[in-house]
Amino acid sequence: MAVSLSILVEEADRYLNAASIADYCPNGLQVEGRPQVRKIVSGVTASQALLDAAVDAGADLVLVHHGYFWKGENPCITGMKHRRLKTLFKHDVSLLAYHLPLDIHPDVGNNVQLAARLGITVEGPLDPRDSKVVGLIGSLDMPQTALAFSRQVAQVLGREPLVVCSGQVVRRVGWCTGGGQGYIDKAIEAGVDLFLTGEASEQTFHSACENRVSFIAAGHHATERYGVQALGDYLARRFAIEHVFIDCPNPV
């Protein structure tokens, strides 16, 4: 089976409501390849390693969370950017990328997908007053210590997280996948026992300790592997085409 590239992109845009979300990069089709799609390869970031693996796998389209053309980046097509785009053009492969639309979607979003794997029941947005805050708040089915929860995170994500632990029992959790460490103050205001994200900044340690809130930095890449897989699976079911997720490990 094959589907028209334009029809697939139209459905992905519609499903994620991409046009309504202000972002730091263009969402949707970033590089146009062959007009028919039989196989999608998805991954977190459109790195050279992912592109090479996608070509080897016979992909017609690469679907990612972190694509190209970010605000403020050098627009010149040189060096690494030239090599990546040359790979796509040479093999006539399309690149489809969704950033914030894939973080916040209620079904395939990175945040809800991570929560499902960690046993967190979603209660609502981290800050209902501010739609720009993409994090969520929820509760654990069974209260446990922060260290016990961090061991669960390590098992699910396959890597040891950075843990700043207050020692208190965790019932309410705030989280934002990727680089959401700046939301820890929002999480503290919301009254969580623990805040989880991908990365940490120097001041995150002090905010957690002085407010007696546990903090886990589980990796930007590791916390954002699941939304793009769920979206790829949705599109594969919708159009009866093949989808393969390829994980190119990243320790950050």
UniProtKB/TrEMBL annotation:
This is Nif3-like dinuclear metal center hexameric protein. It comes from the Bacteria. The keyword Metal-binding applies. The lineage of its organism: Bacteria, Pseudomonadati, Pseudomonadota, Gammaproteobacteria, Pseudomonadales. Pfam families: DUF34_NIF3 (PF01784). Keywords: Metal-binding. SUPFAM superfamilies: NIF3 (NGG1p interacting factor 3)-like. Belongs to the GTP cyclohydrolase I type 2/NIF3 family.
